[in-house]
Amino acid sequence: MKSLKQIINRYIRSAAIVMALVILVVIAFAEILIEQGRVEDTAAGTFVRLEQIIKENEDELKQIKEEYDKTCLHDAEAIAFLLQKDPEATNDTLKLKKYADILELDEIHIFDETGTIVSGTNPEYYGYSFSSGEQMAFFAPMLTDKSLQLVQDAGPNTAEGKNMQYSAVWSADGTFIVQVGKDPQLVTEAMEKNEISYIFHQLNISPAIDYCAVDSETLSVIGATNADMVGKTVAKLGIPAESMQNEEHGFHANIEGKYYYCIFKKIETRYMGFIIPMDVLHGAYPADFWVDG
Questions:
Q1: End-to-end CA, the chain
Q2: What is the rounded CA–CA span in Å between residue 176 and residue 43?
Q3: What backbone torsions phi and psi does residue 267 show, to the nearest 5 degrees?
Q4: What is this structure's pTM?
């Protein structure tokens, strides 16, 4: 029979083991919270940079578009002025092409008072009118208001579907409309800066972390550093929509068979996601990994 001292020692040892296990669990839990807090701080900094990049790109796009619209309109006015001074050039394709080269225009079209192309640099477009398609119909209000000067956003043209930006003005005597077309390269390049792929490349992205952008209406991934995610819904990927939309806290998700810690924030019409594998979160990388992540 064991002595009282042996029994007490046994219980002390058991209690010490239990206490040690509890302490280890508490330490492990605390480390998890610290790691999650650290990654949430990193994500918060990333989201701030994303917002700055998006705003800067949008401001730049707005400025470029305004300046480009003015240039397009001035080009149309210049051609109208030249044709008023040189009426014979109105039906001279070669001369119109020369004017186009001088002003770095891709197309010049002359419309009659019914809104039909009767001359210009592109004979294959003759006969097209403001009723020929949605793109051309944009200029139809000019037929009832000769004071209008219109600039259209870049988009596919009616005849060939090529990307163009058109502007149009009436001649000084109100007998014809001059429309000029330009390849909107500057505007297109500025618009590309608002593409998610471009925005992500402006970040100092760690290869261990995935970034994604989710459309707030369709809940589909519209951009990501992991191309395999693009086009899929968050439900298909395994990201809980309610957790993503909560935004206040990070959450765990099994994304296509692998566990991740996810932080999302809504920026304009998109949920931006910061997604880190659990093995990275729990110490596979040193602390200074987070400085530039």
A1: 63
A2: 58
A3: -125, 110
A4: 0.62
